[in-house]
Structure formats: structure tokens, C-alpha cells
Amino acid sequence: MASDAVKYMPIHGGGTTTTTAADIKSFFSALKPKKTSTFAYAFVITFVSFTLFFAFSPSPNSSSPWFSNIFTSSSTTTTSVSDNTSGSQFSSIFSYILPNVTSTKPTNRSSDATDRISVNATSSPLNSNSKNGTLQAPAPETHTPIAKNSTFESPIVNETNPVAKNNTLSHPLLSDKSSTTGSNNQSRTTTDTATVKRNQTTVPAPSKTPVSVDLKTNSSSSSNSSTASSTPEKQTKNVDLVSSVKQEIEKWSESLKNCEFFDGEWIKDDSYPLYKPGSCKLIDEQFNCISNGRPDKDFQKLKWKPKKCSLPRLNGAILLEMLRGRRLVFVGDSLNRNMWESLVCILKGSVKDETKVYEARGRHHFRGEAEYSFVFQDYNCTVEFFVSPFLVQEWEIVDKKGTKKETLRLDLVGKSSEQYKGADIIVFNTGHWWTHEKTSKGEDYYQEGSNVYHELAVLEAFRKALTTWGRWVEKNVNPAKSLVFFRGYSASHFSGGQWNSGGACDSETEPIKNDTYLTPYPSKMKVLEKVLRGMKTPVTYLNITRLTDYRKDGHPSVYRKHSLSEKEKKTPLLYQDCSHWCLPGVPDSWNEILYAELLVKLNQLSQTQRKT
């Protein structure tokens, strides 16, 4: 009975307890504080461990804000700098404009899905033309707001602000360009419009250059110290470069932001040209007027001066720092090749070791091929040119008689678009080829789908082509990742005929000084402006038409070749070039305007970040 009483007595009852119960109570009493302290120590140790791990482990995301680097103490920029000549893993100043886009080898540029341009899923196609083919004003809801001094307010007095200038201010364009995480050989994906992979142009390694460059790691196979620690001197140099860019932005931001770049005059400046004539061996013979025997040189001493400001002299070293890890691409006709060669010469003259600047395929002549790419090895960037004179595709059909016939597909953008659509900056142009006889007549030449127009006015064909181009831009270019420019029509000065009928300009040695002699604003550029107004993606219009119209003295004329053929020697004045430009010369000013535009955009974004 006693045992049963003990068996059913509560442990915490008011009666006596057994020795076993007392031991159990003593055990738990001792265990409680130990358990609590053990848990506390484990939590602290775990917290500290995770904190240290995330603090010192490199982030896989390379989009850290460049803004915090450039506008904070320079001491923060001296860390993690490699020993690559003039280069390093130092952040690109241009990351201040454009976010991280993968840079890889020039032999196979592809990108990480999270870094490349995304298709804007909300973008709608450009407004189509009305049934009768007349230009139709786009619907108000599809317009991008036009800037205060926009080029679309006047065909004569123009500012280089984008059609939707305010849109660019809110873009998250601040990530670090130089540290990238993309992998090679990634295929393009079209299912996810938020993170579409963009294949960049495939540029084989230079066949005649002993140095193999990796644009992703900023290293060279011929260098034995590319991964060595940077010396304090090089760290200081890189800090100075960033400081110089910051100073350049601050110096020019106020005077440029409200300036109408294209309303001005040409003035003499003995500090010009930007590079010494004959110093740039890359200039095509067609543009190398001094080497071809042109005796006068005053045309090289002129610079473009807007009425309300002064353009900054193009500083090649600063522009290269802005372009570090980037692709700058020119797309268009031979006038854009003119501008491309000008910029390559300016930038090449700014590097210390010109052997580290080369055409990716080892080419030395820049006519006849569909594309060219200059690699600036120490800056991990390329400056490229793609031939596309109409921006839409030249085509070929077979007629009912079995004869092949050339047409122009107004509904298909140029084939090379697949190669440059991932570029960080794209400068387009078209115009001169639309003045040729075949395009001007428009008889059995223009094609849409399977339909070849028996006759179509050139202005309407031009509008259709630009509309196709505009739709491509809206579908393939994310303005948060890339900048798009369209350079306007460059004036020609044939006197007494056209380029193929004895037109001449060989006697011209001074620019036009009386505005009454300038030609009317081209109707094709008015069509261009209407197309740009209908686009959601901001496009900066470089309206150089008027400033080039003054320069009847700047063309190669008879100095377009070093040696004339026997036929040309008999009538040398019959074969003149009054549409392209001598280099150094007028296209250098186009690039100075482009440089000023980039400075303006950098400043706009810095102000936006400070407000946010």
C-alpha cells in the first residue's frame, strides 16, 4: 500500500519526495542557466561569423554605385588597383552614366543576362503612316517630352539635348563597369524581356599583333605583372585620373547645360587641330588631304564656337577614362566613318603606348569591309564602325524574267544590328545615299515584304526606313543601359554639278561667312525630327547640318587621292570629293560636341543622385 501511495503521489505535491525526484529537480535547476548561456554564446558567434563573411567576401554583383566612388574621398579609390599599364581594375568614370555591361575579349564579346540591355516590354512601335502616305503626328501618349531648348523647336537653332531629356535623369546608371561577371559564349534569350541577353559583336583577335588582350580581365598574355599589386605611384595616378574627370564635369557643367551647341560660328584658334597633320597613320587616304598634297592649312585652325558657350577642348585621356570597359559604336555611311576615324586618331594620340591601340583584325585600311573595331587595350574599350548607309537592308530579288534586281528593304533594319545592339553608346547616321539617282527616282527599287513599289517618293521611303530603325531602337535598346545619338546630315558643296557630274570645290579655302549663302534645312532632316518625336527611347540629335554648311573649304576636293589614275590625270578637276571632310578637320568638332554631351549627362546624373 505504501508503494502505491508513493506511486500516485504528485512530484510537486505537498508531501515528501523521493531521492530520485530530488535529483531530477536539482539537475534541471543546474541545467537551466547553462542552457541559456550556451544559446547566447552560440547566437553571438553565429552573428559575428555571418557579419564578417558578408563584409569581406567580394560581392558577385558588380553594379556598385560609381557615384559613391567619384564624389567621396579619393582614399576610397586607391584600394584594389591592379598593375595593368595605365589601366587597372579601377572603376570606369563612365559607369557614372551607364551601368554594368559585360566586357569580354574582343574575339567573342557576350554578356551576362543581368548586365545586358533589356527589351522594354512596354515600348510600342512607332506610329505608322496614314493611308495616303503623308507624315502623321504621333499620338500624344507615345511622345517623350521635348527638352526646353530641344532641337525640334527650330531646324536652325538646335540643342543637343535628347528628345526625352528628363527621362535620362531618373535612370539607375551608376554601376561599376570595370568589374564584370559575364561569361563567354552565352546565347541570346528572347523569352524574358526583363533580362534579355545581348550578343555583342564578334571580333576576332588581331592576327598581326603578338599581344593577346582580354577585355574582361584587362590583362595581356605578354605581360608578366598584370596581376601584381599596384604601386603607390600608380594608385595615385589613377586617383588623379578620376579627379581630373570630376573636375572636367564640374568645370563645364553650368556653361553647357543650357547651351545651344549648334547655333554658332567658326573662329580661328591656333591651338588647333587636335592632332598634328600626318601624325595619325590610321586616316584613310580619302581623308588625308595634307599627305595628298593640299597646300593650304588654315582650314585646320578653325573651331566651332556656340553663341552662348564655349565647347570644351576634347581631352582624349579623360574621354578614354569615361569609356573604360565600354563599346562606342558608329553606324552609318562613309560620313560616319569620317567621324569614327577622327575620334580614333584623337584618342590614339592620348595614350602613352600606341602599340596597345590596334584594329581587332589587324587591318590598316578602312574601306571595303562591313565593320571595323579599334581596341584600346589599357582602357579595356573599343571604338567601332559598322557600314550601314541606309540603316535598312539592301536586298536582291529575281524578277519574272529571271534577272536579279537590287532593292531596298524599308521594313528590315541592317544586318549588322545583331552585332552592335549591345553597345554602350551608338552614333547613327544616314542621308547621303538617299540623294543618289536610284533612291531619288524610287522606281521599282523600294520594297516592303514581298511588295516592290513601282514608284515611291524618296521622302516617304526615307520616313519608312527611319520608322523601321526607330522600332528597332525601341525594341533593342534600354535607355537605362545605353545612349543613342543620331548625327544629322552633313552638307556638301559641289559647285557646277554633282559628285558624278563635274561638281567642284577645289578653289575654296575659307568658310562661308554670310548666312544668306547657306542652303535651306534639308527636308529629310525634318522627317527625321518627326520620327524622333514619336519614339519613347531618348535619342540625342546631333544636328550638325548648319555648322557644316559654312565649311565649303573643308572638303578633300582634288586632294582625295595620293596618286591619280591615268584617266583622272587627264581631267583631274572632274573627280572631286566635296562631301567628305579632310582630317584633321570638321569631324573633329562633331566629336567635341559628342564629348560635351557626355559631360552634360554626367552632371545631370550626379545632381539626380544627390537629390535622391
Distance between the termini: 83 Å
Shape from CA axes? globular
Q: Could you report the average pLDDT, rounded to the nearest whole number?
A: 73
Give helix % range: 25-40%
Low-confidence stretches: 1-22, 58-92, 100-176, 178-229
Q: Strand content of the residues, in percent?
A: 5-15%
Number of strands: 15
Helix vs. strand class:
alpha/beta
Quickly count the helices.
Answer: 14
Q: Largest beta sheet: what is the strand line-up?
A: 6-7-8-5-11-14-15
Radius of gyration from CA coordinates: 32 Å
Could you give a short account of the major beta sheet? 7 strands, mixed
Q: Which sequence of SSEs, written as H and E, runs from N to C?
A: HHHHEEHEEHEHEEEEEHEHEEHEHEHHH
Region (Disordered): 103-148, 161-239
Domain Trichome birefringence-like C-terminal: 311-596
Domain Trichome birefringence-like N-terminal: 257-310
Biased composition (Low complexity): 217-231
Description:
Residues 217-231 have a biased composition (Low complexity). Residues 257-310 form the Trichome birefringence-like N-terminal domain. It holds the Pfam family PC-Esterase. The chain has 14 helices and 15 strands. Strand 14 (483-487), helix 11 and strand 15 (540-542) form a beta-alpha-beta unit. A seven-stranded mixed β-sheet has the order 6-7-8-5-11-14-15, with helices on one face. It has a four-stranded mixed β-sheet with strand order 9-10-12-13. The model is unreliable at 1-22, 58-92, 100-176 and 178-229 (pLDDT under 50). Helix content is 29%, strand content 11%. It has helices at residues 2-7, 19-56, 67-70, 165-169, 232-257, 316-322, 334-348, 417-420, 437-441, 458-476, 523-533, 545-549, 566-570, 586-611; strands at residues 213-214, 219-220, 264-268, 302-306, 327-332, 357-359, 371-376, 381-387, 392-398, 404-413, 425-428, 446-448, 451-452, 483-487, 540-542. Helix 5 packs across helix 6.
